Amino acid sequence: MRILLVEDDAMIGRAVRLALGDEGHATDWVRDTPSASIALTEPIYDLVLLDLGLPSGDGLDILRSMRRRGEQTPVLIVTARDSVTQRITGLDAGADDYILKPFDLDELLARIRAVQRRQAQQPNPSWSCGDLVLTPSSKTASLAGQPLNLSAKEYALLEVLMQHQHQSMTKQQLQDALYDWDSDVDSNVVEVFLYRLRRKIGNERISNQRGLGYRLEPVQQPPVGEHLGH
């Protein structure tokens, strides 16, 4: 998942970015409202983590501007503004969730997973497509009841495809979801990970829609031994 972190506190920003990276998320970090506004001109983010008390502006203005433009990207407010009135104001402005500083990183990650489930219209802790099952809370996946041995990037790619399983994803969209601004990415890296993932779950489970992109298909059949990595 590609996340925009809008946070001016260096210590918090570094800790959150590291935790998100450990979870397999690509995170772009900006520290003020002008930089956030520029970053949000490109519709590449799956989630925005938004501090409210920012230099040169209020984070709520960023949120309101997003919603006025009709942008539906989920926004999780991360702030020290702790009054009930302030929380109501943030939620009414269009935030999807609200977490107070100081916070536990595990709670932040759990709230991010909850936003993911709502966005993917998957209310359950596990997501499924045919007999392929992914559990974000444990970062695990299984095929026909058998655990899959996936690398971090293979899992992240499967998560993106699972989250958007009712639509096709272009190569650029997949790359944007997997890598942040600072990553030096080869032009064929997405194809490499698609190839590796297909070997483990089956070629037929990831279709390539000509001119549209890649899509996860709900296949129900006994897996081949090679697909399970045996």
TrEMBL record:
Domain Response regulatory residue range list: 2-116
Phosphoprotein listed as a keyword: yes
Keyword set includes Ubl conjugation: no
Record-level GO cellular component terms: cytosol; protein-DNA complex
Keywords, sorted A to Z: DNA-binding, Phosphoprotein, Transcription, Transcription regulation, Two-component regulatory system
Feature: DNA-binding region: 124-218
Signal peptide positions on this chain: none
GO molecular function term, any single one: transcription cis-regulatory region binding
Residue ranges of every copy of the OmpR/PhoB-type domain listed in the record: 124-218
SUPFAM superfamilies xref list: CheY-like
Modified residues (4-aspartylphosphate): 51
One GO BP annotation of this record: regulation of DNA-templated transcription
Gene3D superfamilies: 3.40.50.2300, 6.10.250.690, Winged helix-like DNA-binding domain superfamily/Winged helix DNA-binding domain
Entry protein name: Response regulator transcription factor
